Amino acid sequence: DPQRTAFLLRKQWTLYSVTPLYRFSDAHLRDYARLLSAFIAAEKQKGLAVEVGVELGTKVTVSCLPDLKGSDQDQAAILVQLSLRSPAAPKNSEEKLIWSGWFCCVAGDDLSQNVPEDFTCLPLFLVNGAESYTAIVGSWFQKTFDCYFRRLAISPLNLSWMAAMWTGCKVDKTASAMELVFSVPRLPQPLDISYAIHPEDAKALWDTVQKTPGEITQEEVDVFMDCLYSHFHRHFKIHLSATKLVKVSTAVASAHCDGIIKFLQSQYLTGVLMLLTELAISQIQ
Amino acid sequence: HLATSLPLPSERDHLRPRIDLIAFMIDIKSKYSLKNVEASLAHVDANFFLGKVCFLVTGVGRVNYCSVDMNAIWKLGEVYCSPVLFCELELEGIRVATAQRLLRMLQICAGHIPGVSALSFGTLMRNSADD
């Protein structure tokens, strides 16, 4: 149901890999919300205040996103949201959402099959909101479920896979340009090169490269990227292959090597999550 | 002798000493370096591939900067029957250890170690890598 997951689109999510959670149960989500809320209040009292000024109540909701999973073996996604509610404001006033984080697992059989009974596999964690809240929520989960969070970085090799995969996706509306950003190493001043390609040209190129629809090989990704690089070299005499690919933006999604993702199309949300789950699992193992 | 690509300029051929070992350096952060090595390999006489060639992969310390598919590198080692060494140039200890390894290999390839030929050593290295 695209409506229920629409709020995940067009937001910038920072990625983490999470080791399996010990004795986590999706039947106790309300209890977890209560405990986390108390923990946040306690942290604030300790002087690790996240808001300067008037003491505002932080409301915590922990809910399940049943649509976000790959197969029945996957644990459904768990969403944690922090909202601010001023005690002075009238009862029915809107709460302001200040932080969202969700755990997810799409096609994570590689991990969930090899893990003992009491563990729940939700290897991918996506965050939108202040780093200070991320640290507090993260440390509560780590203490409560004996898990470990780590920033998920995306290598240039994986980014080029995403560029190829997402270029091949059919998009209904007029697609936005495909953009690749490269960082040039070993210069006294940092230099970024942005290479924008008309989406129809990119798709046409990919269609000539891909042999079997639905399947992608490393060779095909290499040929696709090499074509883009040689085209650029012909015009600018710069070898992009000697630089570092740091960001890929297409109509489907955009990804940055520091582990930042933006979903732009609800129909491909699960597909992108599957890829990110795979990256998270290989970072854990 | 350090070169950015092969073939070496022919003008200096007569001044050049005998070449005992060629180490091709591939920077895992640069696809361009792999392409460059692949192009240069075509200019190497077949006799060198009897133990006088090795591939040195650098930049392996930071996995998240990887721009080169590792399978392509393994395949290169297989196709050209030459060992693949890994190192991280930015760490002094590893840099020094790798230099010592290369020096040892060079001594063997130059025939300075009695009883060990370049070919037998190369085979030994490849077999131990397969294990």
Describe this structure in words.
Chain A: It is found in: Chromosome, Centromere; Nucleus. The complex is a heterodimer of chains A (285) and B (131). By secondary structure, chain A is of the alpha+beta class. Helices cover 34% and strands 26% of the residues of chain A. Chain A has helices spanning 2-5, 29-45, 109-112, 131-145, 156-167, 199-209, 218-236, 269-284, and strands spanning 12-18, 21-22, 57-65, 77-85, 96-104, 119-120, 124-129, 149-151, 178-184, 191-197, 244-249, 253-256, 260-263. In chain A, the strands form 2 sheets. In chain A, strands 1, 3, 4, 5, 7, 8, 9, 10, 11, 12 and 13 form an 11-stranded antiparallel β-sheet that branches. Chain A has a two-stranded antiparallel sheet with strand order 2-6. In chain A, helix 5 crosses helix 7. Chain B has a 3-stranded parallel β-sheet, with helices on both faces. Chain B has one domain (18-125): P-loop containing nucleotide triphosphate hydrolases (Rossmann fold), CATH 3.40.50. Chain B has helices at 31-41, 70-79, 92-109, 118-130; strands at 22-27, 53-58, 84-87. The interface between A and B is medium-sized, with 18 and 15 residues.
Number of domains of chain B: 1
Number of helices of chain B: 4
CATH architecture of chain B: 3-Layer(aba) Sandwich
The chain-level mean pLDDT of chain B equals 89
Largest sheet composition of chain B: 3 strands, parallel
**Could you give the count of β-strands of chain B?**
3
Helices of chain A, by number, come to 8
Order of helices and strands of chain A: HEEHEEEHEEHEHEEHHEEEH
Task: Tell me which oligomeric state these chains represent.
Answer: heterodimer
Protein name (chain A): Centromere protein L
Subcellular location (chain A): Chromosome, Centromere; Nucleus
Keywords (chain A): Centromere, Chromosome, Nucleus
Family (chain A): Belongs to the CENP-L/IML3 family.
